[in-house]
Amino acid sequence: MNECKCRDMLMDEIRAVNFAIVDLKLYLDTHPNECQKINIYNSFVEKYKCLLKEFHENYGPLIAEMCESDCPWQWIENPWPWNYCENKEVNLCGNTRR
Q: What backbone phi and psi angles, to 5 degrees, belong to 90?
């Protein structure tokens, strides 16, 4: 499968899981004693962390907090998530990947 399509599918999953987290967070703000929903929320948070890690390992950090930096600031050296397919070579926090 085309690398950009795989990346896009992963981004879609990240967005969907993030949406569920935000929605559950709003629900739990008004229903703080719903243990079943808290468990669902926690499972989505764990899935979100795994998806972010997978994205980071394959395409570079999605958020700056996922990448430690030397001087000069390396975050700006990576392609922005929406520019990934335009670049043949990607710098993943100092590691170059094609």
A: -120, 130
- φ, ψ for residue 62 (rounded to 5)? -90, -30
Which residues of the chain have a pLDDT value below 50?
88, 90-98
Residue 63's SS3 state is: coil
Q: Is 98 helix (H, G, I), strand (E, B) or coil?
A: coil
What b/e sequence results for 74-83 when a residue is b if at least 16 CB atoms lie within 10 Å of its CB, and e otherwise?
bbeebeeeee
pTM: 0.72
What residue spans define the domains of the chain?
Answer: 3-97
Q: Is 24 exposed, middle or buried (0-12, 13-18, 19+ CB in 10 A)?
A: buried
